[in-house]
Amino acid sequence: MDIASLVSTGAAGGIFGLVGNLASKVLGLFEAKQTFAQKKEEWAHEERLLDMQVKARAAETEQELAVTASSGSWGGLGDSLKAETAIGAGYPWVNAVRALVRPGLTLGLSAFLCAAFLAMAPDDIDRAYVADSLVFAAVTAIVWWFGDRAPRKNAQ
Asked: What does the pLDDT look like over 52-77, one tens digit per residue?
């Protein structure tokens, strides 16, 4: 073995080691890039899940508010019916006026809402709200009228 052979073998080994080291570093960078992309995808997934949870909680809160408002309305209706039955008999004309108040209010409200509905343009976004109000008012009036006129049980 001569010195030239030793130098060339050493140089070749050094170059091969350097190329291997560079290849290892490039592969390490590629792995880090892939790991970061995977983590980024996981973070995006977690963000979407958190967003869906927030939306679900908001919807749940809206439902709870609607239930609370509805139960309050029904409680008010029940109290109104109790107050109506507690009044008792009086002068015939007073009873006639009292009997016409609910139908008069209901027809007046319905006429007002119908006029508002018909006055709006067909593509007006508030028209749907007015239609919802008409349905709500009609159902409330029917339940109120017929709920009050339900047959009473005789106390024995």
From this structure: 998 888 888 888 777 776 666 666 66
What is the per-residue pLDDT across 85-94, written as a single tens digit (0 to 9) for each?
A: 666 667 788 8
Q: How far is CA 145 from the centre of its chain?
A: 33
114/108 Cα distance (integer angstroms): 10
State the amino acid at position 120 in one-letter form: M
Residue 107, CB-side half-sphere exposure with 13 Å CA sphere: 5
Contact 102, 80 (CB under 8 A): no
Cα distances (angstroms) measured from residue 50 to each of 47, 60, 134: 5, 15, 38
Statement: the pTM of the whole predicted model exceeds 0.70? no
Can you tell me the distance from the alpha carbon of 23 to that of 28, in angstroms, rounded to the nearest whole number? 8
Domain ranges of the chain: 1-87, 90-156
